[in-house]
Amino acid sequence: MRIEVITVPDCPHRAAAVARVREALEAVGHSDVVVSERNVDDAAAARAAGMRGSPTILVDGADPFASGDAEPSLSCRLYRSADGVAGVPSVAELVEVLR
Q1: What does the pLDDT read at residue 27?
Q2: Are strands 3-7 and 56-59 parallel, antiparallel or unpaired?
Q3: Distances (CA, A) of 84 to 6, 18, 42, 90
């Protein structure tokens, strides 16, 4: 399994995204998986990476939280859940994706 967290430089949600991904990996018994991080600072790189706002979390190269109409961008990303809107997915949502 490959996990990558893609952010714009100085993204205020980078640390929380990485921490929650690691917590979710631990919960599903994959604490040995490396979480890589990448900063993207131009639109072409965002498109190439499949970044749909910062932070974008890719699992094996795919964005499990992307809606069908989401375009690659350098914007801040909001994640919608039953608990409302947040800058990162919850640990429970990440666990569901990683299972």
Answers
A1: 98
A2: antiparallel
A3: 22, 20, 29, 11
Give 60: exposed, middle or buried? Use CB within 10 Å, 0-12, 13-18, 19+. Answer: exposed
pTM of the entire structure?
0.93
Measured CA to CA, the distance from residue 59 to residue 72 in angstroms comes to 16
Query: Domain span at residue 32?
Result: 3-98
Which runs of consecutive H residues, i.e. helices, occur in the chain?
Answer: 14-27, 43-49, 91-98
The Cβ-side half-sphere exposure at 61, using a 13 Å CA radius, reads 1
Q: Which residues of the chain have pLDDT under 50?
A: none
pLDDT of res. 94:
97
Query: What's the total number of domains in the chain?
Result: 1
Type of residue at 30: H
For the domain that residue 17 is a member of, what is the CATH number? 3.40.30
Q: What is the pLDDT of residues 16-35, one digit of tens each?
A: 999 999 999 999 999 999 99
